[in-house]
Amino acid sequence: MSDDYLIFTPDDVDLARSPLRRSIAEPTFVLGAFNPALTRLRSGNLLLMVRVAEALVTPVEGDHARAIRWTADGYVLDPHHVERIDMADPRYFLVKGGAYPQMGLTSLSWLLPVELTPDGRGIVAVHYDRAIEPRAAYQDYGIEDPRISPIDGRYYMTVCSCSAERHGTSLYTSDDAFEWRLEGLVLDHQNKDMLLFEGKPGGKFWALTRPLGELYFAYPEDAGFAGGPVIHLASSPDALHWKPCDQPGVRARSGSTSAMKVGGGTPPILTEKGWLMLYHGVEPQEKVGVYRTFWALLDRDDPAKVLRMEDEVPLIEADPEQTHPIAHRLYLPTPVVFTTGIVDAGDSYIVASGEADLACRITHIPKTRFA
After folding, report:
1. Domain count, the chain
2. Which segments of the protein form a coiled coil according to its record (predicted)?
């Protein structure tokens, strides 16, 4: 049996201390405080790095929608004429008429460190003074979905950096998980859900990646796999320069409930049986799809070898009871749980997820579940 609860919600964010307050006087609200990275500090406490998606209370003014954008001189509001955009999804708008699909965000995301007790059941402190906000032009529409991996005594954090320039992965490093150094872009355009292994198989850094595209080649009908976004792997001598693995990684199997797409969830951690990774699979339903958490086991010496893949029975599913107290804030049409962090807690694992793209959820899972 797992043990679940919401640990941090939009109501827990003090927007008076938001980095956007330095430039934007107009009222904003927290669209979501979700998809947190999770790691254990040297003190024994846990750290959630929470993605705070901050949006304008009045996103449309007159005949223009407005997007928040970071600049070196402060945050600005960019107008987009409503006749030239589609706002059917509350998370973004589509720009009509271009030669290529283009989108704008209805919120800007920044990262908020939230320190928890060692068992993950209480909040010790919310570190607004250590919040991480955009710092470069390739992040000017926000930084999203962090993952933290402790490796050889240092902390490595990957984030999705959003901008009109590109949509890639940036790397941060830290000695204590509070003071972070931006190392720059490490994966280029539209590569999401990059997460580093918590260790070095073969003496190299390894990572899960997920390159995206508008077109995918079809598998033969008897191959057993579904075409589309899947989890690949890459290795690096220094965590900065990455070589994609020639072999495929974890692929969606045709006929499974996650056949729409799969993507990395938690940084892989080493167990006696191999590298344990939790990942998300998406079932087609309406526009967003149903997100669930599954798990796989990779070979400890050659992570390209998938030893086991559990994609039939979900490990974690969205739970309406968790979000019932804040149900008035829900905006997604389908159930979504997006798992993003894991730490060892003796006989169990403490797992962090984003629930409904809205709040931070903690799940305690006995290790016997992975027998």
Report:
1. 1
2. none
